[in-house]
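URGENT: need a sanity check before tomorrow's submission.

F., can you look over the (S)-ureidoglycine aminohydrolase cupin domain-containing protein record below? I want to be sure the sequence and structure line up before it goes out.
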Amino acid sequence: MKAPAMHRPLDITEAMDWESIRTMIGGESHVSGKALHKGSDGQSECGLWICTPDKWEYHMTRDEVCHFLEGRGTYSNASGDVIESTPDSAGLFPKGWQGASPVHVTVKKVCTIR
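C-alpha cells as predicted:
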C-alpha cells in the first residue's frame, strides 16, 4: 500500500479548477486544489485547497481538519464561534457546523475531510 505525500504545498502552482461554491453571498470565489487522496467510498479525502476572496455560506456535512498555509479568512457561526484563518493556523470544523466565511486574502490550506 502506498502512502501519498505532498511536499512544499505552498510552492504548488498547478492546481485543478474545482466546481464553484454554490452558496455564494457576494460575487464568486475561484476554487482550485490538488487532491492527495480520495477514499473509494467518497467519504474521506485530503489535499490542497485554494480559494480567492469573497463571501459564502457553508454547512459542514463531514468533519474537516484544516492547516491554513497562507491568506486570511474568517469563519463564524450563529452561536458566535469565530475561527480566524491566518498563515500557520489550524482548525477543526465538525460535522453540522454552519455559518458564513468571508475570504479576505486568497486562502491556501491543506485539509482532511472524513
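My own read: The chain has no helices and eight strands. The mean pLDDT is 91. If you see anything odd, call me.
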